[in-house]
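Field log, afternoon session.

UNIT: design team B
ACTIVITY: writing a sequence onto a fixed backbone
BACKBONE:
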């Protein structure tokens, strides 16, 4: 079932009609936001190198805020931001590959047990966050209003 959107005359932002965005997008955005929060706090649970600490804090915090912003948009009746969720997907992918790129550690077998826990946590959380946010961005891009040319009213 496709949903059409209208532009709010005051802000120019697309508002979802009566039904709003699908409830799944709202809750998936909340889950992705919680994944970002986990990524931000996980270096304090696992032993982490200074570079990984800052990587997790910055990227995890950005994922938390951006996905939370999308959750806020959907909760207040605005359409899902496909651009924001696409950026979240890219940041989550970075969390996966950063385990191998930062500090020149291209193999996890040389890491100590606590660092391995953080590395695997980042890989799994990054994969899950990237998949969910990419799905949200994909479904947001599919709800294009029919019957009007792009950029016209």
């Amino acid at each position: 079932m496709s949903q059409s959107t209208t532009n709010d005359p005051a802000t120019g932002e697309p508002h979802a009609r009566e039904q709003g965005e699908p409830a799944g997008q709202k809750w998936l955005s909340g889950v992705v936001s919680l994944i970002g929060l986990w990524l931000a706090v996980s270096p304090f649970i696992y032993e982490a190198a200074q570079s990984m600490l800052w990587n997790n804090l910055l990227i995890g915090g950005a994922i938390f805020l951006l996905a939370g912003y999308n959750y806020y948009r959907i909760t207040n009746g605005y359409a899902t931001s496909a651009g924001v969720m696409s950026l979240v997907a890219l940041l989550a992918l970075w969390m996966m590959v950063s385990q191998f790129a930062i500090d020149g550690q291209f193999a996890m077998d040389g890491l100590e047990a606590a660092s391995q826990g953080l590395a695997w946590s980042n890989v799994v959380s990054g994969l899950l966050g990237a998949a969910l946010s990419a799905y949200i961005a994909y479904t947001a891009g599919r709800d294009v209003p029919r019957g009007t040319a792009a950029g016209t009213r």
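LOG NOTE: The first helix runs from residue 23 to 45.
NEXT ACTIVITY: expression trials, pending approval
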